[in-house]
């Protein structure tokens, strides 16, 4: 009898969702393990590798890829020698950095003088290395270009052979490489550095070399030193103007986070009616600026511009913008600053590896960390030199003993029969150790003259003084810091350069946005319940008939305003979309109008529920909710300094919104419940709240199951007739509404 097949068992969905398949090596078995274990074993090592060994700079200012490249060039003798082909450098660097020649060459390109990405380039280049300010200007292949180390790199490698930093084996244990470079100046803040790791990033801006060195000296001398006295702000390789904001700079100096505004530098040629932009922010490119200006011109928002072209050449960057004859160039540039990347924001995030751990620090803390690092380098260098001088002194002391009876030393050597006995016999004859005896035995016969002997003995006193001085340095923090200060002053003297990024101050610029050339005239604004909007001129409205509407749709909002009136469209997802009447075309009552969700790009299944108009964001927005609570929010809470088109959390979602009313001052509001009760109160009883999404305060007490159904603003003329519903305090239960059958007559 055939055996009945049993149905295959399938793992439950809940179990498989919490486990992952894992192959057990060598066993041929696939087992299940918790997804958290898989992430811990596979993802976390990758994430830590990216953070620690790839994306974030360390206190010497370099990522591992930078350090490996520069150290390779140093070992190739390119600090003082002539330039060599970049392909040769790339090939040699692969002994330390096995990530492919393309990645290594891209690293070299950014460090090169020709690329103009750094304030103080580390690579002296020859050939086409592209430009940091151009997206399309590609660099030449490595076989065509040449490079060597820039002179400033001497400060990066000073005393690297004196045990100033640790060395570790490279990836195949064939050689060693430094873990850090003993930079004699705060290179971490002198050149900009950006990196994106896993779950974190770093964006360090550059500062002027002289200013940052003076800041480091100031903090060494005085822990309470004010950086603003010497460190004026970031200094970018592309120049430009920084909008000076001392409060924001103090935030950057203290926390390492903040943002600075950089604007382009330009000059105007009145003969050719051409604006020439010669310096741009570091966060943009020539092509991005051109594309944005062309886009605005095509959309009719830059009618003043007739032509734009890139005239960059060997002399540097230049963007030429031709303008119309009647255009004010300064006014146009302010408009361009506002609408294009000609003015951009540089966001600072000083995330640096300290002892293998990422840490976000301000300039104050970074300079303290660098000073501690540099102090350790100085101590290790002094200790290395001290050991060398002690060894030399030890040998010269043996020479001094031998010279007391040099004939005896010669006799010992001559009378010793075997070579291996020379050293022991000298040790016994003069009471010296093996090292000293080796040194004496190796002295050449020609050096047994008076001059040589006197010169060697003359070094003894100097060595003793040097050793005593070095021991004092190792014991004294002050002397160690004095050495660091002296080195910083030497760097300033050799490599300082004038500031490239200059300043413009908020008082010098117009804080108010430049009003676009939008004609201003009286219009009537209509919105239907179905979400259609119409803007109609008074002349057209007088000549028109009834509104054309969809079946079942009605005009729910009508107001008189101007073509520059601000429009706020509130939606059923507690969001508000901001626009202007000028962004909608003039139409007639016979037209359907613009469908607001499509025009303003609403989210899916999002509908408009109310429209508010304003010219100056004065007054209040009064919101009535179904649970009897009311909120009074200043209109200014919806005003934004930037051109934001969408604001989230425009009102509370804790209860259904019954009605939204715009009031200029205190007004009388009537609430009507679905149980037939009414209450009238003055909005002066409701304190305004600055938060847009506040639920407000209880204004009407409701029985279980009851809710506010309708709300109106009551005119002063009607308030006396409805005095029995007027309450002096809130919340109130109200009275039975018997004479409110036609409440629309009371609304304004």
Which key features would you list for this structure?
Topoisomerase II, domain 5, 35 strands, alpha+beta, Gyrase A, domain 2, 19 helices, disordered N terminus, elongated, 6 domains, 31% helix, disordered C terminus, single chain, 748 residues
What can you see in these coordinates?
The protein contains 19 helices and 35 strands. By secondary structure, the chain is α+β, with helices and mostly antiparallel strands. It has six domains: 13-48, no CATH class; 56-183, Topoisomerase II, domain 5 (Alpha-Beta Complex); 265-341, 2-Layer Sandwich (Gyrase A, domain 2), CATH 3.30.1360; 368-495, Orthogonal Bundle (Topoisomerase, domain 3); 518-615, no CATH class; 618-638 and 649-748, Neuraminidase (6 Propeller), CATH 2.120.10.90. It is elongated.
Provide the CATH superfamily of the largest domain.
Topoisomerase II, domain 5
Strand content: 15-25%
The overall pLDDT, averaged over residues, is 88
Number of discrete helical segments: 19
**Major β-sheet annotation:** 4 strands, mixed
Could you say what the CATH topology of the largest domain is called? Topoisomerase II, domain 5
Instruction: Count structural domains.
Output: 6
Structural class: alpha+beta
- The end-to-end distance, rounded to whole angstroms, is 91 Å
What's the total number of strands?
A: 35
Strand order of the largest sheet: 16-11-10-19
Detail the topology: elements first, then pairings.
Elements: H1 13-17, E1 19-24, E2 29-34, H2 35-55, H3 64-75, E3 84-85, H4 86-93, H5 101-111, E4 123-126, E5 146-149, E6 167-169, E7 176-178, H6 187-190, E8 193-196, E9 201-204, H7 209-221, E10 241-243, H8 246-255, E11 257-263, E12 265-269, E13 274-279, H9 286-298, E14 305-310, E15 319-323, H10 329-339, E16 343-349, E17 351-354, E18 357-360, H11 363-403, H12 406-415, H13 422-430, H14 434-441, H15 450-475, H16 477-495, E19 502-504, E20 522-528, E21 532-536, H17 538-543, E22 555-562, E23 566-571, E24 576-580, E25 594-595, H18 596-599, E26 608-614, E27 620-625, E28 629-634, E29 646-647, E30 657-663, E31 668-673, E32 677-682, E33 697-698, E34 708-714, H19 716-719, E35 735-736
Parallel strand pairs: 10-19
Antiparallel strand pairs: 1-2, 3-5, 4-5, 6-7, 8-9, 10-11, 11-16, 12-13, 13-15, 14-15, 17-18, 20-21, 20-22, 21-25, 23-24, 23-26, 24-29, 27-28, 27-30, 28-33, 31-32, 31-34, 32-35
Helix pairs in contact: 3-4, 4-5, 7-11, 7-16, 11-14, 11-15, 11-16, 12-13, 13-14, 15-16
